[in-house]
Amino acid sequence: MIQKILIANRGEIALRIVRACRELGIKTLAVYSEADVQSLHVQLADEAICIGGPKSADSYLRVDRIISAAEIADVDAIHPGYGFLSENAKFAEQCESCNIKFIGPNSKTIRMMGDKSVAKDTVRKANVPTVPGSDGPVDSETEALKVARKIGYPVIIKAVAGGGGRGMRIAHNDVSFAKEYHVARGEAEKAFGNGAVYIEKYIDKPRHIEFQILADSHGHTLHLGERDCSVQRRHQKLIEEAPSPFLTSDLRKKMGKAAIRAAEAAEYESAGTVEFLVDQKGHFYFIEMNTRIQVEHPVTEEVTGIDLVKQQIHVANGQKLEFDQGDIKWEKHAIECRINAEDPGRNFAPSPGTIGLYYAPGGPGVRIDSHVYSGYSIPPYYDSMIGKLICTGTTRKLALERAYRSLSEYLIRGIKTTIPLHTAIMADPVFIEGKATTAYMEEFLTRTPPDLFT
Description:
This protein is of the alpha+beta class. It is 34% helix and 27% strand. Strand 2 (27-33), helix 2 and strand 3 form a beta-alpha-beta unit.
């Protein structure tokens, strides 16, 4: 049984893992960069080891230093959180070779689902709908252009090893395709060290719906319902909610079964997410599988009452899931707002710096996941997210009202944040009516004056 876990991450997810481990009676080791010595997870973990300089390349991405820290501290397992090395098959493989349990799927599954063209082919064989497009990476502009013309414009060019919106470009005709093809390849090579791309039909104004999966090593795979992640800016999610206000009961059942088939095809173990695009007519298409815990996992935790991080640890321990699909109940509605250190009034410019006053909202149905506090200095080296506000209610209307109220109470001084943006969205009729698609943010920002966010 796992007795000590190294947390190979930072910020709110690292703190989230510390809390889950403490409830389970498991010791924790925080590894941190020089820039993160103030972070709460470093202060609250049982042990902490500095593994390098402020930049990720000198610390959180240094596999050798993380493994060395694990061996020095004699840990049983490593939890990668999300981002950084969480979907790095080589890292998982090295953990396996060092007899350290990687809390997540095995390296083979990570490698399979991390290659988007392989993932697409894998789930297609399991009768999961996929977006029309190339059968795999396209090796030349000429070949790519043939595919684009065959499936019809608009098309989207995607990096095989992509994520976070990088290496993704939309083309509406032959002329723009030639330009965007090379831009996407260049972005992919720079971001992932792999310039390979594939082509898909671009679905206009879809919903982005993902299903939370849990699977153990005893052949049990189930889903915990969906999250609607359609409110995005530049393919980065800003707001997530469960259940989706768009899905019908019938469509939810169909998508849930498809998500399970996808996970089983990948021989998946642990918590993971199967992501779909859903068009206006209710047709859904697999786009990718995230082989890790998601930023937005608290939304599912709040509506189901199931602790996903604890479940990851139980599965890593070789335990069976304690519930079946029929045991999962969805009796609440939850909405999550990602609080970023950005200035939405200045095109979302990063806003690192020292927090003066920090006051988090409370009251019924309000959860805050954050590692910051008054006096905390936000470093400029990492993702800008500094917290998550999750509000729940017995109805979507109540969850919305609590989110709006909580945002008005949330005080962070000394830096700019996305709190004013979220407040405006919670009062926007389109969002209130549940009609937000992936095009929502672009349309919202076009009709909303920037000074509203100051």
